[in-house]
Design brief:
395 residues, alpha+beta, five-stranded antiparallel beta sheet, four-stranded antiparallel beta sheet, 14 strands
């Protein structure tokens, strides 16, 4: 794949150091690490290898990737590996796409309480789906779901929400039959929304009471229980956005969707247009507009662009793709086995790829192909990444 004309890395390399100095004390270690990884990705700083085509003599240098999950250039290979494992989980039933979104007021406190608020978003969304689906008035079945966290809007604003991919049915309470949902309709979004709102606010009050929330600046007064209750009041009355899209066209469409959504980052390099004295210009989609007027361009000062990008750096070790119910990691194989029997679907084996060996100079391993003639290329030289300086030199 060719290099995009403009990349997020170009913005960071050009303006990142000055911005980091200006923001020192306001950026986390994780945000520093993300910026550093993106700046060095596929550059000599991370090492690489030289390739040579034995047929036409074409030579090429390939630099290593940073593999940071926030890097726009590294998400593709990670998504491919993840999808290969997910193919074995697909069932021969319609799949539905549901979205749970947090109101703007909660988004405001989520930025300084990412792990707590995002965990609640995952768990309450999953609990809501499973509770309503288990109710005989709605579906009366045990379901499974895969939830994916997105924290951004198209304009890089902070907009936490989870996308759910859910099979259109579930196991009956006694496990004896597959209960399919009505064609084209999974669960009532109105019912989902009301339960999601009530349960989220209940749990939010609990974590506040436990002292697990932090408040700064204009929101510092919310640390007081009375002020927090006043702040919660309008959230109990407003509508929370939960919506469901039409079912996917088939298992292949589910995988196509997952390949585009699971490993997304806040903005892809393809959306960037220019970097000049005005700032960064990029494409975005205004979902409040209709038709072609949805697609617009926006120019942000470089400092504001980097600030918005950094809003979406997740806490270290935070899982942004989670599986629940029948799809839960701890019992997925055992849960899906009876489902496949009921649906008369043979068990699928998880596709595997041969382990890749570490490249070495003179290696005859032919995993690369010449862009000129298509013949296999071999690695003729490798070099390691530059060691990072962890302390001042001894004098």
């Amino acid at each position: 794949m060719g290099r995009c004309a403009l990349e997020v890395a170009d913005v960071f390399r050009t303006y990142g150091e000055a911005w980091r100095q200006a923001q020192r004390g306001h950026l986390s270690l994780g945000q520093f690490q993300v910026m550093s990884a993106i700046e060095q990705c596929r550059s000599a700083a991370l090492g690489g290898h030289a390739l040579s085509c034995q047929a036409c003599g074409h030579d090429e240098i390939a630099y290593n990737s940073c593999r940071n999950r926030h890097c726009p250039k590294c998400r593709g290979s990670s998504a491919k590996r993840w999808l290969q494992a997910r193919q074995a989980d697909l069932l021969p039933v319609p799949y539905y796409h549901v979205v749970f979104t947090l109101p703007a007021l909660i988004s405001a406190i989520a930025y300084t309480n990412k792990a707590v608020i995002y965990d609640l978003l995952f768990d309450i969304a999953a609990e809501t789906l499973r509770t309503i689906a288990a109710d005989p008035k709605h579906l009366g079945a045990r379901i499974g779901a895969t939830l994916v966290l997105h924290t951004w809007g198209s304009a890089l604003t902070h907009h936490p929400h989870v996308h759910g991919i859910v099979p259109g049915g579930g196991l009956s309470s006694d496990g004896s039959r597959w209960v399919a949902c009505n064609p084209g309709f999974f669960l009532s979004v109105r019912v989902l929304s009301r339960l999601f709102r009530r349960r989220f606010l209940e749990e939010l009050e609990q974590v506040h009471h436990a002292g697990r929330l932090q408040f700064f600046g204009e929101l510092a007064h919310l640390a007081e229980p009375a002020a927090f209750q006043v702040w919660l009041a309008p959230l109990k009355a407003c509508e929370w956005v939960v919506y469901a899209k039409r079912p996917f066209a088939g298992p292949e469409a589910v995988l196509d969707y997952l390949s585009r959504y699971t490993h997304r980052v806040a903005i892809s390099n393809r959306r960037l247009i220019t970097l000049d004295e005005r700032g960064v210009t990029f494409r975005w989609k205004d979902y409040r507009a209709k038709g072609r007027t949805r697609h617009k361009t926006m120019t942000l000062d470089t400092s504001e662009f980097m600030r918005r990008f950094m809003l979406h750096v997740l806490p270290a070790g935070f899982h942004r793709i989670r599986h629940y119910g029948l799809m839960a990691n701890c019992g997925r194989r055992d849960n899906l086995a009876p489902v496949r029997e009921l649906l008369a679907q043979p068990a699928w084996s998880i596709p595997t790829e041969p382990e890749s060996a570490e490249p070495s100079a003179g290696s005859s391993r032919t995993t690369y192909f010449c862009p000129d003639c298509g013949a296999p290329m071999v690695i003729v030289e490798t070099w390691i990444r530059r060691p990072s300086i962890r302390a001042p030199p001894q004098t």
